[in-house]
Amino acid sequence: MLQRIEQATAKKGRHDFGGERTHNLSHRNFDCSDFASADMRRVDFTGASFVGADLTAAELQGGNFVNAILDGAKASFVSLEGSAFQDSSMRRAQVVGAKFDHAIVLRSDFSGTVFDYSSLRGVRCERSVFDGGSFKIADLLGAENDLCNFRGASFQGARLDGAYFHSSDLRFASFVNSKVRGVEFAGGSLVGAAFSSAEVQASEFKWVSLDFVEFDDAVLDGASFAYSQLSTVLMRNASVWRTEVGSCDGYDVASVKTGRFRDAVAGRRRKEAHGGEVLMREILADIDSFALPGSAKLRVTKMFAAAGIGSDERSDSKRGVSEKAWKACIARSSNFEGKETFSSGILKAVKSLACTPLASRREIIAGLIEDWSARMRLRRSLSVGFARQMLELEGQNCGINSLLTGQQVRELYRMLSASRAYIPETVPRSEVKILAS
Length: 437
Prior knowledge:
single chain, alpha/beta, 9-stranded parallel β-sheet, 9 helices, 26% helix, Pentapeptide repeat, 5peptide_repeat, repeat
């Protein structure tokens, strides 16, 4: 029966969730139920509730989860390829190592959900919330996100090649050590986001807010900032070969590298005329092999063609134009008298986000604490300032303390104890020592 349904649905050109159903389990209450390793492919779960349910390794491909509630579900290694989530809620769920390819997500809430090591290739999201979510080492090849929120989310080590973010809120999202190649950021905000040590070749940042963004040690070859202002950013040791830049008043860009990126893995320079083309072909081959939408392929092809990082340097003038623009940026970056420093600015911005009265505020704060704690060794003074802000030891209080768990409080005091000079007199050092242990 299942095979017949799959064939009929494919023949009609419908999505997996749009064909005939194997079962109708709509509006059922499955709270705290055990469906581990269950086979429930192409089932209609409209309006069903799975709060706290165990869906570990369950097969739910092509499922219809319209108006469904899956808050707190244990769904690691679950298979949800081709499923539909519309007006659904899956907050604070564990979806580690799951398969979410080609899923459709519309007006749904996934705040605080963990998608680490999961496959989300070709996912299409619109007007949905992933605040404080975790996508570490996840694969989001060709994912399309329109008017979505990823505030305080983590994409550390993830692959986002060929992805698209339109008018999305990515404030303080972390892309550290991630692959962000051929990605289009159009509109929205990346305030406070971190791209340290990320590969950002041939990506475009168009009309995006980039205040207090970190690009330290990032590979930005062929990226375009022509329509976004590079103000109050960090680009220490970043590679900007053929990187387009418009308005540039960035902080600390004096150490950028305008030459071709030296491949840290291979230990040699990419071939002069073919390095970018090889990378583009590899991404396009993956898009084809996973049957992703043609829009992803067109986007990657367009971005790499515009970047020109696969063309012959000797017959291309883009490198010279790029180097000239970056020299002007470097000259301006040394004079910031009277301007707000990066450190104070980013701390004010993160406090502002944490104080914003959002439904996902608790999840955003949790995501921020986890990310800043993980990078404490690299930004110790900033981490101390962040901890003081979250513990509301300075400035105006906005109720952050009431949203913190005991573990989060201990972690923040551990960050404080990294520098005794920043421990306030109101906090006994003996208490800090105990909490940090």
